[in-house]
């Protein structure tokens, strides 16, 4: 692996790896293998319970940071850089655990996960109405239009 310093535009010096690009799931698979965690395992109660627990823990941590940021806004204070950094860290942790679930379960092919995301994206875009408009509920959630098409992920399993 070759490391080189780069300027990323704001004067901050970063380190860029010039090694072969690894997908998020391949990085997590490397972690799972190194730490003797499940990789491509058959679903079993203990594994499914663990993955559920980890996802809920990380999602709750994201929610806590968002609530803290929301309280700042309600109090008329700006969201701080520290809060934003904390949110980024918790979002990355949540994604890491989500990717770990893909890696751990053998009935979900790691190589197909990006394809699944693409199909879900296409499905989400079908929520637009016939005029290309978005319909929201009172809380700001995007609602499904009559054009909505559920993604068919069966070919990816």
Give the helices and strands, then pairings.
Elements lengths: L2 E5 L5 E5 L6 H11 L10 H30 L6 H24 L8 H13 L32
Can you walk through the features of this model?
- The chain is mainly α.
- The protein folds into two domains: 24-108, putative ntp pyrophosphohydrolase like domain (putative ntp pyrophosphohydrolase like fold, Orthogonal Bundle), CATH 1.10.3420; 109-157, no CATH class.
- 50% of the residues lie in helices and 6% in strands.
- The chain is built from four helices and two strands.
- A two-stranded antiparallel sheet has the order 1-2.
- A hairpin with a 5-residue loop joins β1 (3-7) and β2 (13-17).
Can you summarize this structure?
The chain has 157 residues and is mainly α. The protein contains 4 helices and 2 strands.
What characteristics describe this protein?
157 residues, mainly alpha, putative ntp pyrophosphohydrolase like fold, two-stranded antiparallel ribbon, 2 strands, 50% helix, disordered N terminus
């Amino acid at each position: 692996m070759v490391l080189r310093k780069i300027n990323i535009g704001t004067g901050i010096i970063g380190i860029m790896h010039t090694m072969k690009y690894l997908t998020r799931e391949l990085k997590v698979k490397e972690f799972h293998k190194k730490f003797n965690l499940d990789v491509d395992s058959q679903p079993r109660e203990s594994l499914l319970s663990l993955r559920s627990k980890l996802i809920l823990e990380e999602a709750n941590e994201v929610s806590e940071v968002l609530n803290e940021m929301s309280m700042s806004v309600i109090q008329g204070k700006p969201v701080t850089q520290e809060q934003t950094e904390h949110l980024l860290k918790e979002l990355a942790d949540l994604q890491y655990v989500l990717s770990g679930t893909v890696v751990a379960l053998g009935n979900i092919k790691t190589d197909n996960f990006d394809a699944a995301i693409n199909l879900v994206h296409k499905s989400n875009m079908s929520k637009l109405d016939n005029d290309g408009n978005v319909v929201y509920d009172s809380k700001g959630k995007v609602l499904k239009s009559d054009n909505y098409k559920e993604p068919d992920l069966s070919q990816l399993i």
